Amino acid sequence: MKKFSICFILFWGIVQVSAQKDSITISAKLSPDRKILEVSQEIIYHNHSEKPLDSIKLLNWTAAYNKRGTSLVYRKLEDRNNALHFAKPEELGKILTLKIDSDNNQTVSKNDASEENLFFVLNQPLRAGESIKLQLQYQVQLPDKKFTGYGTSENSIALKYFFIVPDQFDTSNTSKRNYNDIEESVNFNTHWKINFDVPGNLFVEGNLPQANINSFKGYLDSDPEFIISQNEFPAIKINTEDIHTEIKFGYAISPQEVQNLEFFLPLHLRFIKEKIGFVPERLFISDKFRAKEDFFGNNDISFWKFKFKLFTDAEKVDLDYFGIIAKKILDESIIADKQDHHWFKNGLKSYLESQYLKKFYGEAKLLGNLPETSLFGIRPLKWFHASDVKLLDRYGLAYQYIMSQNLDQKIDEPFSALSNFNDMAISSFEMGSLFSFSADKMGEENFNDLVKKYIAENKDQQINPEEFLKQLSEKDSSTDYLAQFLKHKNRVNFKLKKFKTKDDSLQIRIAKNTDDAIPAKLQTQTKDGEIKSYWIETGKNERLKTVNLPAENIYKITLNDDYIFPEANYRDNFLYTKGLFSNSKKIKFKLIKDIPNPEFNEIYLNPRIRFTNTYDKFLIGMNFKNQSLFDQKFLYSITPSFSTGTGKLTGSGSVAYSFLPAESVIRSLTFGVSGSYFHYDYDLAYQKASLYSNINFRKDPRSTVSRGISFSYNYFQRDLNAKMIADRDYDQYNLWSLGYGYADNQMIHEKSFSISTQAMQDFNKITAEAFYRWEFAPRQKLSLRLFAGYFARNETRNNTFDYGISRVSDYSFSYNLLGQSATGGILSQQFVLADGGFKSFIPGTVNKWITSFNVDTSVWKIFHIYADAGIYKNKSNPTQFIWDSGVKVRLIPDFLEIYFPVQSSLGFEPGFKDYGKRIRYTLILNLSTIINAARRGWY
After folding, report:
1. Does domain 347-484 have CATH number 1.10.390?
2. Domain ranges within the chain, ordered by starting residue
3. Residues in contact with 937: Cβ distance below 8 Å, sequence separation at least 6, in sequence order
4. Direct distance between the N- and C-terminal alpha carbons of the chain, in angstroms, rounded to an integer
5. Which residues contact 911 (CB under 8 A, 6 or more apart)?
6. 3-state secondary structure of 387
7. Predicted confidence (pLDDT) per residue in 860-891, tens digit
8. Averaged pLDDT of the chain
9. Is 80 exceeded by the pLDDT of residue 170?
10. CATH number for region 23-232
11. Strands 165-166 and 53-59
12. 148 φ, ψ to 5°?
């Protein structure tokens, strides 16, 4: 009787706990055209909060696909994807009709539920712990799958976030949550029962346990997702001594990949279970999840007709699916609000990956097998440090890359505010590095036991990962810094200052730039390659520490090697104890840009051959610089060259230093000096010396907005020919410039504005320019430009510094003109959108003021039409009105474009005998412009 009572009490307790879980029952019928889902749904909702609720918030995220202006549309535009913005009405998603009934006789009906958050107002408050039953009837018009990977397509239907559900993360039911396609959980610890009625030739697979054909039921700590397809996708069952897991795939897999997976998946699951103590009985991997969570950087490289494999097909499957399986298991075992606590699961995934790489790919290279590629018997990639970088270093390198540009974000930044690159480099890689660093310090087994315990204690419960950090610090006090480390952009830096030998020991001085008590890992190495490691504890407010170690023929000292801790600078973490470079680093000369090797002071020697203009023609020279593939604060570049056009030595050089404050309205503050010597006409050279400073203001890494202030002083000295001397042209002059620029390169509405002033002893001018470009249809744009220039003072001797109408006077040598002084021929027809911006050759310059308006719009494919209009005034002359129009052909948009004038103030130009000489072209050969355009959408 006693045993019966205990069992009854336990059973009743389980029933009571289970009764507090929400349940959702759905019957969903798919229309024959696979566009409409008719849903009959029952929700039993419990008030899990500690206070009464006046309303229940239901998430209707199908509405995110319904119109322009939603958070989803805007986020896709940030990612340089305009498909949803320009979608046709039949491609959009929406709720067509909606009726909600409750068990207290309330009814709400909507013909068009266009809001993402639906608030069902209650007749009487729902007290804490009480429940209410809601009956919903609605029709879902499914969006096209191409927008987010969810929706309908010709081959399959992917369902996720289309059912109306309560928002489990917001128990206050007052705030709004919008769909941003970031794979956040919204409904957890819920019992689901879903029956599908689909046309007979379709199969349904999903992440819920299958009860019958097209019928699913069970508990989920994540959101339900299903694939409806004509094809029955594969599943792999793992049955080993301690693991019984079925993995279903929502996409087709080749027989070879299945064979590889059958070998690797048991290894993956066993490894993950050893680390976190849990693997579920079933996993469902969708095509979208695979694409998001696979291994970054192991894909084959295709170039023209050539294809280079970094890793074998088996290795690619191994690397890809370990990360995919690890993240899926973490999603199934940990309930966390992705907006605020994304870093916990992302960091654990990277930690597991790095542990797996350490065990099975410890010596693998970042570039895989690519460095072994031979070209005419030579392996050119062997010359690069990148060929020696380990695959394990990817975590530290990604953080270093984005941090060096001061575009990194703090780890606990809300996920929707993270740039796509920082999602990987900060939320995943940096946090994973911190977990690995802590595990290395306290012992991996101790760290893994803590993770296991934390996951087990919080099963089916929403977690706050800060509690995990608290338990971690209780286990090892040297991790106390982590709680605050996550809340700021960090520029922690350790430095090996110097060492000295005393008796039989080395006294090593280590400095750090923070008052936090953060440990460091010190390694010593002999010439024979023997390595010893020491953990160095640093105290609170202890910025300088002296460590005594046995000398033992130590050859090299290293601090935090292999990027194990996210430092601001690794270049001061190496010292040599013997030889010419004792107490310093060696110098290494290299060819071509490379991933920096922090162990050396690297100088890049780059042979250069480039065409500059028709006077210098090809420049043959050697560039000496310290700039690697990563940005650096201190940069120098010196390029002596031989001019094939003049037979003389030319060249340029610059030195700059940038301040990159982590937490400031300023992103970068740069000071620099530069100088150059080239030719601007036949046998006429110019010298330019500059002092400059630029301020780039802080930007949201997801935003396309940039703002900056620039200041410069330039000294010019020019050779003059006899005619120029007779015209009293300027052989020497100084220019002072101050300007402000704003640019927003977003996808649909691109705009920019700048204002500047320029002065010398004979003039002072003020210039303003505004630009707007609207993409009114896919790849069809309308551009508007407004320019205004005014001389506040003009006492110049000639028209050298005047505003141009159709040509610019490049007296500052900044426009990269092919024919700087050309007045005829093909070189003189080069067009630069500056000053008046007229494409027709309207004669004259402006020495008082000018205002012009330039319009350009798409007509068909690469063909545009343009029109320019303006008014200007010269001294002692009346105000003039001018205009032109014509056709533009965009061969390579923004880089190579050709202008054909038609009608202008000059008349009907195609009727002129010299029409061929009136055709203009734009040619921009600027690699950095191409790179900046390519990386938009990432940061």
Report:
1. yes
2. 23-232, 242-299+319-333, 347-484, 494-504+511-584, 586-700, 745-939
3. 78, 79, 80, 81, 420
4. 68
5. none
6. helix
7. 989 999 999 999 999 999 999 999 999 999 98
8. 90
9. no
10. 2.60.40.1730
11. antiparallel
12. -130, -5
